[in-house]
Design goal:
about 375 residues, alpha/beta, Rossmann fold, 2 domains, 3-stranded antiparallel sheet, 11 helices, SRR1-like domain-containing protein, SRR1-like
C-alpha cells in the first residue's frame, strides 16, 4: 500500500476488487455488522458525539485504529457570523468498498479505509424546515391517488395478501433512509413525491400485516429529517421517528425493513445484525422491501480491475474519473448484497414489484421469511 499523495493531471491509477481476501478476513474476525460488534461501536459513537476528540475502531483484520481528532455535535459559528450545525454519523463500509484496493491505496489513512465502521462529521447550515408545507400539501392528494391506482401497489398488495398469513410474526416496520420531503432540484435534489410515496408503501404493508394477525409499530430513521418532517410523519401517520442510529438497533428478527436506494449498506447491516437467534444462524429480519437482490454482491467483481484517471474539471479542480460506467451497471451502488444477504434471500419468498422505469422505487422487490 502506498501512502497518500497529491494527484497530477493525466495520472492514471490501477485498482482491482480483492473480494476473496475480505471474505477470508470476515471468517477470521467475524461479520463487521454483527450485533455485538455494532452495538459496541454505537456505544463508542454516542460517547464521541457528545464529547468529540478521538474514537477507536477496528479494521477487518481486527487491528485497532485511532481516528483523527474531531468535534462533537452542536452549533458552530464561523468567522463572519455564519452558523452551522455539526452532526456526526456512523459510516458503514460495505463488502465491495472494503475490497476495492483504491480505498486502501489512495487514502490519508489506509488502515481507516479498511474499517467497516467509522464516524463521519457532517456540517450543514443551521436547521430549518427543508420543505414548504403549503407547497407539499398541494400535491399530496394527487400522490395518494396515484399510489392507490399504481401497479406497484397492486403487486405489493397481492403478494402480501398471499404470504402475510404464513410469514414470521412482524412486530416492527423499520423505514431506513427514506428521507425527508425536501424540494431540491436535479440532479442532486429530491422530488418529495418519492419519499412520500415510499412511506405510503410502508403504511400499505402495515395495513395488510395487521389484517392477517401481525401487530407492527412503524418506525423511521434518517439523519436528514428536519423538525417539520418529523412532525408530519408522527402526526399524519403515527410513524415513530428514531434518532440515528437508534433505528438500526431496533431491527430484530421480527422486523420488516423498508429501505429504497440507501446511502448505507442497510441490507448487509440488517441481515448481519439479526443473523443469530436462539442458537440458530442465518435467521435475519422477517422481511424487506428494497431493491431486488439477484446475487451475492460479488458476482463479476472478484479480481475485477479498473482505472481512475485524474482530469481537470470545469472549475479547474482535479477530478478522478473511473473507467467503470454507472450507466452500464458497472459501478457499485451504496446498498448492495453480500454472501450473508444472499443466503438469507434464498430462504425467503420473493415478489418482484417494480423495474427501472419506476421513478419512485426503481427495480424493487419484497422478501419475506415464512414461519419455520
Amino acid at each position: 500500500m502506498s501512502s497518500y499523495h497529491s494527484h497530477f493531471e493525466g495520472e492514471v491509477q490501477y485498482f482491482k476488487y480483492d473480494v476473496d481476501s475480505i471474505i477470508d478476513a470476515y471468517s477470521k474476525t467475524g461479520k463487521p455488522f454483527a450485533k455485538e460488534r455494532l452495538d459496541a461501536f454505537i456505544a463508542e459513537f454516542k460517547r464521541f458525539r457528545s464529547a468529540g476528540g478521538l474514537y477507536s475502531t477496528t479494521t477487518i483484520h481486527g487491528e485497532n485504529v485511532m481516528s483523527n481528532k474531531s468535534i462533537p455535535d452542536g452549533e458552530l459559528t464561523m468567522p463572519g457570523g455564519a452558523r452551522y450545525t455539526v452532526k456526526n454519523a456512523i459510516g458503514y463500509t460495505d463488502l465491495l468498498s472494503l475490497s476495492n484496493t483504491r480505498n486502501a491505496e489512495d487514502a490519508i489513512c489506509p488502515s481507516m479505509n479498511l474499517c467497516p465502521l467509522t464516524i463521519e462529521s457532517l456540517q450543514s447550515p443551521a436547521p430549518k424546515p427543508c420543505f414548504n408545507a403549503m407547497t407539499l400539501e398541494a400535491e399530496t392528494t394527487k400522490w395518494e391517488g396515484e399510489w392507490t391506482r399504481s401497479p406497484f401497489r397492486h403487486r405489493l398488495t397481492t403478494f402480501l395478501e398471499a404470504h402475510a398469513p404464513s410469514m414470521r410474526k412482524v412486530t416492527k416496520i423499520m423505514c431506513i433512509g427514506l428521507g425527508c420531503f425536501s424540494q431540491g432540484t436535479a440532479p442532486y435534489g429530491r422530488d418529495p413525491k418519492r419519499p412520500y410515496t415510499q412511506y405510503l408503501a410502508a403504511l400499505t404493508v402495515h395495513t395488510i400485516l395487521k389484517k392477517h394477525g401481525h401487530d407492527p409499530v412503524i418506525y423511521a430513521q434518517d439523519p436528514d429529517y428536519c423538525g417539520a418532517g418529523i412532525a408530519l410523519l408522527e402526526s399524519r401517520w403515527g410513524i415513530r421517528v428514531l434518532e440515528d442510529p437508534d433505528g438500526i438497533q431496533t431491527i430484530d428478527n421480527n422486523t420488516f425493513v423498508v429501505a429504497v436506494a440507501n446511502d448505507i449498506p442497510i441490507k448487509q447491516i440488517a441481515v448481519q445484525y439479526t443473523w443469530e437467534a436462539d442458537g440458530k444462524e442465518g435467521v435475519g429480519p422477517a422481511g424487506m422491501l428494497t431493491e431486488r437482490i439477484v446475487n451475492d454482491g460479488t458476482t463479476g467483481w472478484r479480481g475485477k480491475e479498473h482505472t481512475v484517471t485524474w482530469e481537470r474539471g470545469e472549475d479547474g479542480e482535479l477530478v478522478g474519473v473511473s473507467s467503470m460506467d454507472i450507466r452500464k451497471g458497472e459501478a457499485q451502488w451504496s446498498d448492495v448484497s453480500d454472501p450473508f444477504v444472499w443466503e438469507w434471500v434464498r430462504k425467503c419468498r420473493e415478489g418482484v414489484l417494480g423495474d427501472w422505469t419506476d421513478e419512485v422505487f426503481g427495480e424493487c422487490g419484497i422478501y419475506v421469511r415464512e414461519e419455520a
